[in-house]
Amino acid sequence: MLDLSANDYAFKDVSSDDDIRCIILAAEGVHFSAGPSLDEMRMMSKTDAVRWYRTGTTLCNLIENTRQPVICAIQGNCLSYGLAVALACDIRIAAENARLAFPDIRHIQLVPGWGATQRLVHMIGSQDAKYLLITGEFINADAALNKFSIVHDVVSNDRLYPEATRIADIICTADLEPLSQLKHAINSGVDVEFGTAIKIEEHSWISSWDVPNRTDIIQDAIHNLNAS
Fold first, then answer.
1. What is the value of pTM for the model shown?
2. CA nearest neighbour of 153 among 140, 141, 161
3. Which of 33, 85, 79 minimizes the C-alpha distance to 63?
4. What span, in angstroms and rounded, lies between the C-alpha atoms of 150 and 172?
5. Are 84 and 114 in contact (CB under 8 A)?
6. CA–CA distance, 209 with 212 (Å, rounded to integer)
7. Is 139 helix (H, G, I), strand (E, B) or coil?
8. Which residues pair with 101 in a beta bridge?
9. For each of the chain's 228 residues, which pLDDT tens digit applies?
10. Rounded-to-integer distance, Cα 100 and Cα 180, Å
11. Structural domains in the chain, sorted by start
């Protein structure tokens, strides 16, 4: 079973650290997440199950809204609530051996949770989302990339973490404040009217402009472009 409390505390600590500009979410072992422990779920009362659902949803919302961009490195099975966590991340990189699925309906007659149904629809559209959620079909890394666009890249198994680190290094060339403003503009503008979304972008743009060393930043960019 995913350790929700530990992950919740970890993300709260990371989000409040101004020295951290990017987060890589990875798992040890063969699989990213094989999903919840059915033995533990079997022993839950309705009250326990609802509390567990809400705690997991809060964790995914926290990941999505954390100031830092979050990269998810997926290897092996990434199923059910593990995949729900991956969908809450900003960037997803999969190893060649990755398999993704929401087998919840097929296996335990349960609607996928933790925001998975809504995030997947926003990400790939309702038709493809319905297919994956209703059938519970397992898809490999190639299909996740080229057919459903759930992941951003697929790399060899031994290159998964190095590739995630390479992307994180690129992200970390920017300061945290403009990164967080950019993430806020994208996340907040998705579900609102276009004109409102532009206003959100404007606020984020002004906030990212309004730093004491703005002139130096632009001058450094000019120098770097000329040097290249």
1. 0.89
2. 141
3. 85
4. 23
5. yes
6. 9
7. strand
8. 79
9. 455 655 666 777 887 888 899 999 999 889 998 777 888 888 889 999 899 999 999 999 999 999 999 999 999 999 999 999 999 999 999 999 999 999 999 888 999 999 999 999 999 999 999 999 999 999 999 999 999 999 999 999 999 999 999 999 999 999 999 999 999 999 999 889 999 999 999 999 999 998 888 888 888 889 888 887
10. 29
11. 4-171 (3.90.226.10), 176-227 (1.10.12)
Q: Please give the Cα distance from 119 to 125 (Å, whole number).
A: 10
For residue 117, which amino acid is it?
A: T
Return the structure tokens found at 210. Answer: 């309004």
- Distance (Å, whole) CA 197 – CA 49: 36
* Residue 168, both tokens: 């994180």
Q: How far apart are CA 68 and CA 16, in angstroms?
A: 10
Q: Which pair of structure tokens corresponds to residue 167?
A: 């992307």
Residue 60 token pair:
């995914």
Both tokens assigned to 212 = 């004491």
Question: Considering only CA atoms, which of 110, 64, 117, 60 is closest in space to residue 85?
Answer: 60
CA dist list (Å): 1 to 61, 82, 105, 219:
19, 10, 18, 50
